[in-house]
Amino acid sequence: MTLPLALLPPLTILPEVADALATGRAVVALESTIITHGMPFPQNVAAARAVEAEIRANGAVPATIAVVGGQILVGLSADQLDDLGRTPDAMKLSRADLAACLAQGRTGATTVAATMICARLAGIDVFATGGIGGVHRGAETSFDISADLRELAHTAVTVIAAGAKAILDLPKTLEVLETLGVPVIAYSQDDFPAFWARSSGLPAPLRMDTAGQIAAAHLMRARLGLPGGQLVANPIPAASEIPLSVIGPVIEQALAEAAAQGIAAKQVTPFLLDRIFALTEGRSLAANIDLVLNNARLGAAIAREIASARQ
Ligand code: PSU
């Protein structure tokens, strides 16, 4: 029995992605908030294209996810991607606002949380991004904790990120992930990475050295019926790293400006990223693009391992 259309999610899957999913080939989801709120135009569109190309070059099909005119698009055409890159006022969609945006026929970019939900609906296991949201500094009074963390506990997608930025409180972020039962896997090192820096100085709870190990853990979670995903923390390539001693003072300045200007809630992360790009004169943006490409490569390798294990 097929469900009436009104009961199905409003999902439009690009033919290339639908074909790959139907034939069991590797697919890697990508988010769109990084395009609309994470990087300036036109570097955002160029970076999104380069990330898609990197996934293809590594034997998987990219599926950039966004909401356009009340439809979840899984895989964007070149024109759709370009249009989104020029829409900085697109809604920033997390779990709380995804359904409202769709019901109102609006357009929005998906955060890590919303991209996980949409990837799952489409049957995609692996999602590569830059950094995840986490526990903001001062959360003991502001309660500002990204919905990304709870989504990792809910939705069975393996997310590859370069750890989390030191704009966040990293020890508290790891604590909350532990409480939520989310596996945090550092790739090929012991420490949890800190986005622009290869190490946060904090040990990661788990370490894996191959894409095959990560794929096997993902598949084992499904066999156990465990809800929720895995966070794979992949350090930025050494050549692109900005050490904490350099990026640390810049982060402090951006945080002080955010506090002085009363920036809160959803505006905090985009504001800090924008200020850090300006204060480092683009060095942080170049590093950001390199680490996303690196995560795309690992994501493609994990997706290929999952696809071949299911053959
Ligand atoms: N971290 C980055 N770049 C980003 C984001 C996070 O380095 O673009 C985006 C992601 O989409 C993430 C969201 O899901 O910000 C988290 O926002 P918040 O802190 O408001 O939950």
Give a written overview of the molecule:
- The protein has 311 residues and is of the alpha/beta class.
- The protein is 47% helix and 17% strand.
- The chain has 13 helices and 13 strands.
- It has helices at residues 15-22, 33-36, 43-57, 78-85, 98-103, 112-122, 139-142, 147-154, 170-179, 211-224, 244-260, 268-279, 283-310, and strands at residues 11-13, 27-30, 61-68, 71-74, 91-93, 108-110, 126-128, 158-161, 184-187, 191-194, 197-203, 206-208, 230-233.
- The strands form two sheets. Strands 1, 2, 3, 4, 5, 6, 7, 8, 9, 12 and 13 form an eleven-stranded mixed beta sheet that branches. Strands 10-11 form a two-stranded antiparallel ribbon.
- Helix 3 (43-57) runs parallel beside helix 13 (283-310) and helix 10 (211-224) crosses helix 13.
- The longest helix is centred in the C-terminal third of the chain and has 28 residues, at 283-310.
- The two termini are 27 Å apart.
- The mean pLDDT is 95.
- The structure holds pseudouridine-5'-monophosphate.
- Mn(2+) binds at residue 144.
- Keywords: Glycosidase, Hydrolase, Lyase, Manganese, Metal-binding.
- Its cofactor is Mn(2+).
- Substrate binds at residues 92, 112, 146-148.
- Belongs to the pseudouridine-5'-phosphate glycosidase family.
